[in-house]
């Protein structure tokens, strides 16, 4: 396993933000806009915290829809 691979399938929002430079507001906005699906890119844990799936986050970033919308901006 490389240093960049997560040992966990889910990480808390704060860790995700610290590692990616994302902001909590941006994550919550993606959830509100249904760009991210609960159970795929993010999930509310039994403790009430928001968790992010790094593998699914990377897939989302690399998706063709994201690349084409970034070029249009």
Per-chain topology:
Blueprint: E1 11-12, H1 13-20, H2 24-32, E2 42-44, E3 50-52, H3 54-62, H4 64-72
Antiparallel strand pairs: 1-3, 2-3
Structure characterization notes:
- The structure is a single chain.
- The chain is mostly helical and 73 residues long.
- It is built from 4 helices and 3 strands.
- A 3-stranded antiparallel sheet has the order 1-3-2.
Helix content: 40-55%
Largest sheet: 3 strands, antiparallel
Question: Any idea what the shape is?
Answer: globular
End-to-end separation: 36 Å
State the strand order across the main sheet: 1-3-2
Beta-strand fraction estimate: 5-15%
How many DSSP H or I helices? Answer: 4
What's the Cα radius of gyration?
13 Å
Uncertain runs: none
Count of beta strands:
3
Q: Which class of secondary structure composition applies to the elements?
A: mainly alpha
SSE string, helix = H, strand = E?
Answer: EHHEEHH
Mean pLDDT, to the nearest integer, reads: 88
Task: Provide tags for this entry.
globular, 48% helix, 73 residues, 11% strand, mainly alpha
Task: Give a summary of the structure in a few sentences.
The chain has 73 residues and is mainly α. It is 48% helix and 11% strand. It has a three-stranded antiparallel β-sheet with strand order 1-3-2.
